[in-house]
Structures are given as structure tokens and as C-alpha cells.
């Protein structure tokens, strides 16, 4: 299961202590290192927030000049991509721990104490290897480049120095954190092991008969099972493909990762993350709750239906299911429980409705799929709107059947509904900005996201928030965007290996031999996606499987946009299923409901979402 808290916890009292003055010295050193790690983290997150603010300003000024003065700046897109790459590199050391490190602890939780220590050492060695790869590969790539960027005329090697600096910061953060935990020796040992791997692997010749992509997958999978962060596993795994005849060198790996991060479409991700934070800060979230309550609160299981409808409204501003799950768990869970809902059932409703955020636009999942497969992002977002409404309808039926005739509120009057609608209109305007701007070709998806973020910022400023509150939203969105950008970049070399090894063609041939009719191909793809959703993060599964399965579906005559929508809906179900179940863990951590009980109670809503997936598959086959 993916960790939702920062890092692995190991008591500092377990550190062996000798006699004499050494314990006090060690304690002081640990305290100083922990404080320094915290300061570094604060500085890096503040830098990420500042870069995000500059990015937003740059894109908004560009859109304003284009439509206000019919002019613009040359090289705006290139400047934005450089800023985004710098943001990712600043956030790179923060990927070591926290909710976006995406650690898998299925195996490590079952190990005895000594086994967990060894697994932790291996996981840190993986992170150190990834840091050394970025440091040495970035430095070598920078030293070899003499060209300048086409639009701005800046030296291209600067971009690779960004990545080299990010790798160095990751190594420094790893040491500081482990010294702060009283495990400085193990931290030094892991860095030494990672550096040794980065030094020896490019010189080795394994002579393996396996495909380089298979070697990389096995190495990354083993590191993931030992508890290393997902992005670090992908980078370190590709290193093991070097002596297996992959044709990639360390500079080539870093260059491919940098290319994966340098797509203008990806800039929409931090802007949509910013939208969700600003919406909450402005108080618009509470107004959406009030509107939903006046519309459906009087129906059967009215409070639960209100939570569902609020999730639909909130989906049009957040784009992040994790953000929606946290919002719903803190906002609705106490009210549901106080009105007679069992805590497990209340938490299950919140977790299930949170799935909608990555389907109803703006959807970060669709942006990742568009970047990985070159499907039109606009068409995916519009298709996601229809799919999200279908899923909401199925969930409404499940909530009605599962919660009986209790928990109704008084029917709202027409005047109350009108007042609630007027109060919520500013927040609902975000949906118009995003979908309207994209649908009518006024702005690109990235520009629409920036305009929506600017609009949400104005809503927040109207409530006169503190500077600290605004800065916190920018910092959080910047760090989250850096983590997602790092994952995209780390997946790019792995995707390159899959392409070189012809994995997509092999899968296509295999699908052709196992399935002849389109429905068989679609069933096979769905089974693969469902299995991947059980153990992989949605973003990683999209980046790795999207380019492989899309040609298979298109070859069977299935519309690529419809298949993209089906793939995202399918993978989002993984947020409700063990062992990963990220949405279940977020809601469990916020509400205190045991994870096991929550997985059981969420089953009726999971069945409802599977029914929606079935309808989408039928539409793909017959229309």
C-alpha cells in the first residue's frame, strides 16, 4: 500500500549508544541535522511556490497580450518549460518522503525488525542511485552540449545543470534526514552503495538474454517492493538496463527524462492543483456544499447525495482525487456521522465519490494520458465530462439503495435554491472557463488551466486572505506539481526502452492471437488495466501502459478518445481496491476509520462504478 505519511518511521531509541559523551554528541548532531533538513525543505518548497507564481504570471500575461494587444513575447513557451524544469528539480529532494513519494510497503510491513532495516537500507540505496544518476548524467550531458535554445538563445547545458543540482540536493537531503533520525551511518552506507552502482553499472556487461526493458522492470519492481519511492525506482531500474545492451548511457537517460518533463501541456497540472487550493481558501467549497444540499438534501439519503453532488461540483475545479478525498473527509464525514451514518459507511461514500475528480474536467489523469499518447487533450476532457456524469448517476443509485430512507433534510424553497446558486456561481464559473475555452479553441488546455488558476486566485483575494495562506497554497501546489513532473520524467526513459524493445508490437501480436473480436480486445485491455490499478499509482500506470495499450485498441477499431476515457476510469477504480487503494488510505487517515473495514464497506460503490465502466465499454463497441 502506498504510504500517505512522510517517510518510514523507526524509533531513534533503537540506535545503539555507547558509553561516555558520545550519546549527547549524537543527540545534538541528530537534532541539528533534523532542523537543517526542515529548513532546507522549507526553502525548497518556498522556491517551488515562487516558481509556480512566476509560471502563472508568464502564461497569464501571454494570454492577455494575445487577446488584448494582439501581440506576445517570443519564447514564452520555452521560458515556461525552463521554469517548470527548475521547479521539478527544486522539488526533487522532497520526493524522498511524504505522500507523493509513492512508496509501496506490502512486503516491508510483513518483515521482522531486522528485515525492515535491511529493506530500508536498500530503499535508500535506490534513492541514492537515482540521485547519483541525475548528478553524474546531468553533469556529463551539460558538459557535452554547446548549443543554445532556439527561441531564447540560452545555453542548453543549463537545463541539465538543473537536474544535476537536483540529484545533489536529493543526496544531501537523504543524509540529513537519516542523520536527523539517528541513522547517519546507514545513510552514509546507502549513499556509498548508490554511488557504487552509478559508477560500476555503466562499465559492466551482464550479458543477459533478457530484454533491457525487462531487466529495468525487474530492478524497478524489486526496489519498489523494498519501499523505495516510485520515481527513484524507475530511474534506478533503467540504470540496470545499461549493461544489458539497452544502448542508453547515463547522460542519455537524463536527457530522455528532461525531454519527458519538457512538454507545455504538463504545465496545466500545477495550475489545476492551484485551482483546488484557491477554491478551498476562498470559501467557495462551502458554497458548493450549500448549493448541493438545497438541490438534493431532501431526497432519500439526502446528506450522502449532497456529498456526491458536491464532489461533482468540486471536480470542476480541483482535478485531483486526493484533494477531493481530503476535502470530503474533513467536511462531510463529521456531518454524516452526526446524522446517524456509521463511520465506515460515511468514509466509504467519501472515498467513492472522490473518484470523480480525476474524470470530470479538469482532470490531471487525462492530461497525463494526452502527454503519453498524443491524444487530443481537449477531446479527452470533454469525454471525461460525460463519463463523470455517468459515474455520478451510478453512484447516486448505489447510495440510494445502500442507505435507505433516512437522513433527509427539509426541502429547500425556490428562493433558498436561487440564493445558493448565486453564491456558488463564481466557483461554477471555473468549469465554463476550462471547458468553454478549450471547446471553442479560445485557449489551449494549459492556457485554460492558467486562466482558471488566475480566476480562482481572484476569488481567493476577494476574501482578503493572509499572505501566509496564499503562500501556503502556492507552496503546496508547487511541491505536488514537482512530484508529478518527476514521475513523468522518470517514466520517460522506461517508456523509451519499451519502444526500442518493441513491447507495444509484441503486445499487439499477443492480443491478436488471444482475441479476434473488438470486444475480446477491449476485455483483455480492461483486465490488464484493472490488474495494474491494484498495485500501481494511476499516473504511473497511465504513463507506462497508455502507449502500449492504445495501439492495441485502435488496431481493433476502438475510438482512441473513448478508449482513453475507459482507461482512466478503469485505473481510477484502483483508488478503492487493495492493496494500494490511495483514496481509501487518504480517507482512512483523515477520518480514523480502519482501512480493512473501509475496503469492505466500499464494495457496493465499487460495483456501481464497474457498471459505469461496462456502459462506457458498450458505447466504445457499438458507437
UniProtKB/TrEMBL annotation:
It comes from Pseudorhizobium flavum. Residues 56-178 form the Tripartite ATP-independent periplasmic transporters DctQ component domain. GO terms for molecular function: transmembrane transporter activity. The keyword Repeat does not apply. The lineage of its organism: Bacteria, Pseudomonadati, Pseudomonadota, Alphaproteobacteria, Hyphomicrobiales. Part of the tripartite ATP-independent periplasmic (TRAP) transport system. Pfam families: DctM, DctQ. The keyword Cell inner membrane applies. It is found in: Cell inner membrane. It is a multi-pass membrane protein. GO terms for cellular component: plasma membrane. This is Tripartite ATP-independent transporter DctM subunit. Residues 1-25 are annotated as: Disordered. Coiled coil: none annotated. Residues 222-618 form the TRAP C4-dicarboxylate transport system permease DctM subunit domain. InterPro entries: DctM, DctQ, TRAP_DctM. Keywords: Cell inner membrane, Cell membrane, Membrane, Transmembrane, Transmembrane helix, Transport. The chain crosses the membrane at residues 43-67, 79-97, 118-138, 158-177, 184-202, 214-243, 264-284, 304-327, 348-371, 377-399, 420-442, 448-467, 479-499, 519-549, 561-585, 597-622.
Amino acid at each position: 500500500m502506498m504510504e500517505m505519511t512522510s517517510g518510514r518511521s523507526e524509533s531513534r531509541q533503537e540506535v545503539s549508544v555507547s558509553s561516555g559523551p558520545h550519546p549527547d554528541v549524537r543527540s545534538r548532531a541528530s537534532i541539528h541535522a533534523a532542523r537543517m533538513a526542515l529548513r532546507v525543505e522549507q526553502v525548497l518548497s518556498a522556491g517551488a511556490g515562487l516558481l509556480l507564481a512566476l509560471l502563472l504570471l508568464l502564461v497569464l500575461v501571454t494570454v492577455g497580450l494575445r487577446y488584448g494587444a494582439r501581440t506576445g513575447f517570443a519564447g514564452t513557451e520555452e521560458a515556461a518549460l525552463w521554469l517548470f524544469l527548475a521547479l521539478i528539480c527544486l522539488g526533487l529532494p522532497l520526493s524522498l518522503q511524504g505522500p507523493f513519494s509513492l512508496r509501496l510497503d506490502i512486503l516491508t510491513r510483513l518483515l521482522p525488525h531486522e528485515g525492515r532495516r535491511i529493506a530500508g537500507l536498500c530503499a535508500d540505496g535506490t534513492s541514492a542511485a537515482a540521485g547519483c544518476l541525475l548528478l553524474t548524467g546531468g553533469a556529463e550531458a551539460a558538459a557535452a552540449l554547446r548549443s543554445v535554445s532556439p527561441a531564447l538563445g540560452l545555453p542548453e547545458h543549463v537545463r541539465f545543470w538543473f537536474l544535476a543540482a537536483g540529484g545533489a540536493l536529493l543526496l544531501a537531503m537523504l543524509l540529513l534526514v537519516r542523520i536527523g533520525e539517528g541513522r547517519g551511518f546507514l545513510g552514509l552506507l546507502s549513499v556509498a552503495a548508490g554511488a557504487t552502482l552509478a559508477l560500476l553499472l555503466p562499465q559492466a556487461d551482464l550479458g543477459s538474454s533478457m530484454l533491457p526493458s525487462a531487466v529495468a522492470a525487474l530492478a524497478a519492481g524489486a526496489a519498489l517492493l523494498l519501499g523505495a519511492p516510485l520515481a527513484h525506482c524507475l530511474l534506478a531500474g533503467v540504470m540496470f538496463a545499461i549493461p544489458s545492451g539497452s544502448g542508453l548511457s547515463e547522460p542519455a537517460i537524463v536527457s530522455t527524462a528532461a525531454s519527458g518533463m519538457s512538454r507545455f501541456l504538463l504545465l496545466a497540472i500545477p495550475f489545476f492543483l492551484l485551482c483546488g487550493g484557491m477554491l478551498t481558501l476562498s470559501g467557495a467549497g462551502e458554497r458548493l456544499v450549500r448549493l448541493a444540499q438545497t438541490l438534493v438534501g431532501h431526497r432519500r439519503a439526502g446528506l450522502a447525495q449532497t456529498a456526491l453532488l458536491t464532489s461533482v461540483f468540486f471536480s470542476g475545479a480541483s482535478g485531483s482525487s486526493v484533494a477531493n478525498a481530503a476535502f470530503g473527509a474533513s467536511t462531510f464525514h463529521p456531518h454524516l456521522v452526526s446524522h446517524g451514518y456509521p463511520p465506515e459507511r460515511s468514509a466509504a461514500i467519501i472515498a467513492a465519490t472522490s473518484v470523480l475528480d480525476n474524470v470530470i474536467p479538469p482532470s490531471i489523469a487525462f492530461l497525463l494520458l494526452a502527454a503519453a499518447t498524443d491524444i487530443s487533450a481537449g477531446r479527452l476532457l470533454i469525454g471525461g465530462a460525460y463519463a463523470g456524469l455517468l459515474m455520478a448517476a451510478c453512484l447516486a443509485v448505489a447510495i440510494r439503495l445502500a442507505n435507505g430512507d433516512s437522513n433527509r433534510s427539509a426541502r429547500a424553497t425556490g428562493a433558498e435554491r436561487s440564493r445558493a446558486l448565486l453564491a456558488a456561481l463564481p466557483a461554477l464559473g471555473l468549469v465554463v472557463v476550462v471547458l468553454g475555452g478549450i471547446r471553442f479553441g479560445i485557449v489551449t488546455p494549459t492556457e485554460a488551466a492558467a486562466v482558471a488558476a488566475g480566476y480562482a486566485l481572484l476569488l481567493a483575494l476577494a476574501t482578503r486572505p493572509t499572505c501566509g495562506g496564499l503562500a501556503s497554497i502556492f507552496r503546496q501546489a508547487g511541491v505536488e506539481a514537482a512530484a508529478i513532473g518527476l514521475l513523468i520524467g522518470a517514466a520517460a526513459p522506461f517508456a523509451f526502452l519499451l519502444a526500442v524493445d518493441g513491447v507495444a508490437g509484441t503486445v499487439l501480436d499477443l492480443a491478436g492471437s488471444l482475441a479476434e473480436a473488438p470486444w475480446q480486445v477491449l476485455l483483455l485491455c480492461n483486465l490488464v488495466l484493472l490488474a495494474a490499478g491494484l498495485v500501481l499509482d494511476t499516473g504511473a500506470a497511465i504513463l507506462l501502459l497508455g502507449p502500449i495499450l492504445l495501439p492495441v485498441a485502435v488496431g481493433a477499431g476502438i475510438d482512441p478518445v473513448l478508449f482513453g476515457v475507459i482507461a482512466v476510469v478503469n485505473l481510477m477504480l484502483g483508488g478503492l481496491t487493495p492493496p494500494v487503494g490511495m483514496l481509501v488510505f487518504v480517507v482512512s487517515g483523515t477520518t480514523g476509520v480502519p482501512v480493512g473495514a473501509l475496503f469492505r464497506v466500499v464494495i457496493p460503490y465499487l460495483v456501481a462504478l464497474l457498471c459505469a465502466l461496462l456502459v462506457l465499454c458498450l458505447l466504445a463497441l457499438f458507437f
